[in-house]
From TrEMBL, chains A, B:
Residues 7-110 form the HTH hxlR-type domain. InterPro entries: ArsR-like_HTH (IPR011991), HTH_HxlR (IPR002577), WH-like_DNA-bd_sf (IPR036388), WH_DNA-bd_sf (IPR036390). It holds the Pfam family HxlR. This is Helix-turn-helix transcriptional regulator. Keywords: DNA-binding, Transcription, Transcription regulation. It comes from the Bacteria.
């Protein structure tokens, strides 16, 4: 596993990543936004089970970590849209690997 | 992002993965075990900051998800060792991508 199996320095960068992505919602929100910019309600509808309070908190944390951008449009009434940044998009491979692993995990756990 | 950007079915498998790996400790414990079987104390030492209570809880959850194996050796006194399973090892690519992304994230956040 990795050429650096157990290496403390590699563990540090994995820890950095996990801290930025902590919890079960952030990657799901990013995945939802990876299809295009969305409004608060749309995200909440796609990420099934998240409460408004949690979504609001997660969006703030994602913005702070420069993974998403919040834009206020000058419409009447004003509308707010969230979009994924290039840095957020750089999680593509992580999400892809999690997707494949999630499929395999379901098989291992539920079919045995 | 993915060819399936935002696809509900892909979101389900990412959700499965995140549920099995929830929290900031599980992947770090697996990474520590990826270098070889270890005893409780050794893992606790390598995964800096984890309490005994949290480590004990996480090990149980990892075992339930078939990601690690707990073995009791017939020594005097008996010793317990934890090792990563093949299913746990299948997280190699996820950990690798998180490692690379963690490095990039540190640069983005701390150097700008």
């Amino acid at each position: 596993m990795l050429t650096t199996g157990g290496c403390p320095k590699t563990m540090l960068s994995i820890r950095d990543a996990l801290e930025a992505l902590e919890g079960k919602w952030k990657l799901l929100i990013l995945f939802s936004l990876s299809a295009g910019p969305k409004r608060f309600r749309q995200i909440g509808k796609e990420v099934t089970g998240i409460t408004d309070k949690a979504l609001s908190k997660e969006l703030k944390s994602l913005e702070m970590n420069r993974l998403i951008k919040r834009e206020v449009h000058d419409t009447f009434p004003p509308t707010v849209e969230y979009s994924i940044t290039a840095h957020g998009m750089s999680l593509e491979k992580v999400m892809e690997e999690l997707h494949y692993w999630g499929l395999a995990h379901r098989k291992t756990i539920f079919e045995k």
